[in-house]
Amino acid sequence: MASLKIHFMAVLASFTAITTAVPTSHYDTKCPITLDGRVPINATLKTFDTDASPFNPDFTKGQNLTWSQILKLPAVAPSKFDLPIHSKAVEVTISDASIFVPGGGTQQLGFRRAGLLMGNGSDATNVGVKTFHWSVKQDLNAKMNLTHEYMNVWHEANDYASNHFSINAGIMLEQDKPTDSNVTTTGLAKNLWKILDRKNNVIWTTRIDWDVWQNFAVTLDYEKNTLQVYYSREYDSLHPVTALLSQDNSGGGQMQIGLLKKPTETTSVVYDGYQESGIYEGQIYGGVFIEDSAGGCISA
Ligand SMILES: *[C@@H]1O[C@H](CO)[C@@H](O)[C@H](O)[C@H]1NC(C)=O
Ligand SMILES: *[C@@H]1O[C@H](CO)[C@@H](O)[C@H](O)[C@H]1NC(C)=O
Ligand SMILES: *[C@@H]1O[C@H](CO)[C@@H](O)[C@H](O)[C@H]1NC(C)=O
Ligand SMILES: *[C@@H]1O[C@H](CO)[C@@H](O)[C@H](O)[C@H]1NC(C)=O
Ligand SMILES: *[C@@H]1O[C@H](CO)[C@@H](O)[C@H](O)[C@H]1NC(C)=O
């Protein structure tokens, strides 16, 4: 116990150089975890190329790239749900080589993408009531170009025709405009995070913070067909930021965490359009997990 505590303090001390804001208090999750995407403290980049990874080692990434080439393990203070220090941040990056080719398909030349994938679309995260957690932090040396639209975290339905939810950044493409004509357009400013429902309605927005961790959670109730969004900054407790909204949550899906940069001047979005060359962009993630929210349980 004593040696554990010394180890904890030593790790903490090494972060103090970066920030003094890391609290020593605990943020244990409080509901059963269905899938855990928190990166163990002893994981190396090579871990992500193997089945020991919390994520799928094969998807979704550039055709000729390995995860150990795509990811970084940045020296940043842990996010809220990585404390007490048992897991750490991982950064997903994209470059000109981040061109995905789906099985039997053609190169998705419109996109630059890399997304860590959790689950298989027909697992326990698709039944009952589940909450999808992630925290995100910006790398000032690898910023997004918000002239483009990005999809950063999403739960893609198994037929690939929609997402039960997504969080997007940048200027939204005309092709992604909401199918609900009642949606407001106030959420479309490029420097806002935009949370979209299954019909691409913007259901909540907040500014992209360039300095601190931003913590998000989305509860999908597969029985009552509702979703609800939670949010906080740094080490604050999550609080609901939308009402309980109705939507069709059927069809099964998978959570993906990373960056999908869409082109400008595009027709198909996936196969054509403009992408500048020489890019290097990243997003730092932490505290990724999916928990069982039966009975209203949510780790906040
Ligand atoms: C990390 O530690 C755990 C627990 O001791 C062990 O099971 C796992 O194999 C280790 N992983 C790596 C990549 O060393
Ligand atoms: C991957 O490598 C093959 C063989 O060199 C090449 O034909 C293909 O275009 C590469 N894919 C990408 C996305 O660069
Ligand atoms: C998906 O994962 C679950 C849980 O691990 C497993 O029971 C199920 O058989 C898997 N389904 C497929 C299609 O691989
Ligand atoms: C738009 O709002 C009106 C009034 O609340 C409602 O009757 C209508 O069903 C809504 N349209 C859509 C597409 O949701
Ligand atoms: C952002 O993207 C646009 C469109 O691809 C490009 O014209 C512009 O040069 C980029 N800006 C920066 C700062 O990279």
From TrEMBL:
It holds the Pfam family GH131_N. It comes from the Eukaryota. The keyword Cytoplasm does not apply. Residues 35-296 form the Glycoside hydrolase 131 catalytic N-terminal domain. The keyword Signal applies. Coiled coil: none annotated. Keywords: Signal. InterPro entries: GH131_N. Residues 1-21 form the signal peptide. This is Glycoside hydrolase 131 catalytic N-terminal domain-containing protein. The lineage of its organism: Eukaryota, Fungi, Dikarya, Ascomycota, Pezizomycotina.
